[in-house]
Amino acid sequence: MKKERAAAWIVDTQKHLQEFTGPYLSYYDATIIAGQCARMMARIRSMEVIDNIPKLWAMAASAGILPSQLKMIILPNMEKSGVINILKNGSGGIRKIEEHVPSEENILGIAYDIWESSEAKEVEKISIHSLDLCSTIPKAKDELVHELQDQGYNDKEIALAMELQKGFSILAESDSALPSKPMIYSPYVWGENAPKILKYISHLDEVSRATVKAVLEKTSQNQALPLDQLNTFPQDLLTAARKIGLLDVCQVSTRAGVEKGFAFTPRMWGSLGSDKLIPDIYDDVKLFLSSISFGQFYSGISRIKYPVELVEALIQKGKVGPATAIGTDFILMEKHGLVEVKEDPDLGGRYNMYLVKEDVAKTSLEILKHKRLLGLGEQVRIDAKGLCQTGEFVNPEQDKIRLGKLSAASVKAQERLIKVLRREEL
Predict the structure, then answer these.
(1) Prediction pTM value
(2) Fewest CB within a 10 Å sphere: which of 106, 241, 322, 348?
(3) 154 by DSSP, 3-state: which?
(4) Range of the domain at 116
(5) CATH code, domain carrying 86
């Protein structure tokens, strides 16, 4: 496992353990320290100089860090890693901090190094490995134990780690499905769908289970993956995975009658949940990502080559344009209130697109960069013509019910809607 991947689980675990108290937290000492360091790095990144120390304490508090912990443990670890300089006054108090925190991608690598230098216990290492092994698909308990043994961990430490993870609700053990074959799963990944998923997985043969796992692994590395790219897998397994919530699918149809589906894994929201998402924006994020993916693979105008750079430009500048294609290609995003499209006053027939829901764009950008939501914090090439010409959007819940084709939207109704959105017709 790459250290950045391990660090993502470390951060997830620290965020979750923040809600607990008690002596057993001592087993996760290094994990808590490294996770807190990562989150503090993300919070102060780009601030350059911090001389408002009470503000620093307040920022730390939201990551579960007490002022004394920040001063004695977290900041010294960050300084040792080279991401900050601590300047003190004559009495030894912190006067100001100069930050040199790199990108969020590099934060993960630094956090992992802090975790290792904090002498992570065997139990912590087993917890991170088991969380990773169970993140894509529920795993039979005996299979998980065997894989951990192959990593060199002894049975005593494995048993302790699994008990701690169950006690802290990081992982759970099924008491249904096949009683003789308990399964280990993440309740945060599968949520209310867990019973159905466990029953389904426990009855699959080895080949089918490996196939489902391959589908989920491919999708987890390509959120908003076009369903066309999963055509080589057995369609009965894909349909079942969609119905029980192992795979989320959003359907997008265009005014031209093109209909495409895009696949997501539930784990894109982070294994142990996120403190920055609210349910209202889930479908908005999936719509945003589906629109970008449509532009990458299906746009009849021009394909998006650099989706990350495009979204970064939209966030940084607040708008893209003017361009003729913007007037026709962003209809669905406009309909859902994610962006606003206006004709350029100086260039008739060309349009500018303004970002409305910044939180949706930022969350989408994080998923584009990291393949899932980490919740760490908060030269651009742009080709605005490539975004999709969408007409209708079907969220995963609707897809589970329908699992069928959608009729193309009425062109007249869409044109009327566009006029209302742009206040051309009130």
Answers:
(1) 0.77
(2) 348
(3) coil
(4) 3-120
(5) 1.10.10
For 34-101, the DSSP string reads HHHHHHHHHHHTT--EE--HHHHHHHHHTTT--HHHIIIIIHHHHHHTTSEEEEE-TTS-EEEEEE--
HSE-up (13 A, CA, CB side) for residue 418? 23
Per the domain annotation, does 153 fall within a domain? no
In a domain, 126, yes or no: no
What the block records as the tokens of 201 is 């997985």
Please check whether residue 407 lies inside any domain of the structure. yes
Question: Of the candidates 79, 95, 120, which is a domain's last residue?
Answer: 120
pLDDT tens track of the chain, all 426 residues? Answer: 889 989 999 998 998 898 888 889 999 999 999 999 999 998 888 888 988 888 888 888 877 899 999 999 999 999 999 999 999 988 888 999 999 999 877 899 999 999 999 999 999 999 999 999 998 888 889 999 999 999 999 999 999 999 999 999 899 998 654 556 788 998 877 777 888 888 888 888 989 999 999 999 999 999 999 999 999 999 999 999 998 888 988 887 766 667 889 999 887 877 665 544 444 455 788 889 998 898 888 877 767 788 899 899 999 999 877 877 677 666 777 888 888 888 988 888 888 889 998 888 988 998 898 888 877 764 323 333 444 444 566 666 556 555 544 344 445 555 555 565 566 554
* Residue 277 and residue 410 in one domain: yes
Q: Is residue 17 part of a domain?
A: yes
Number of domains the chain contains:
2
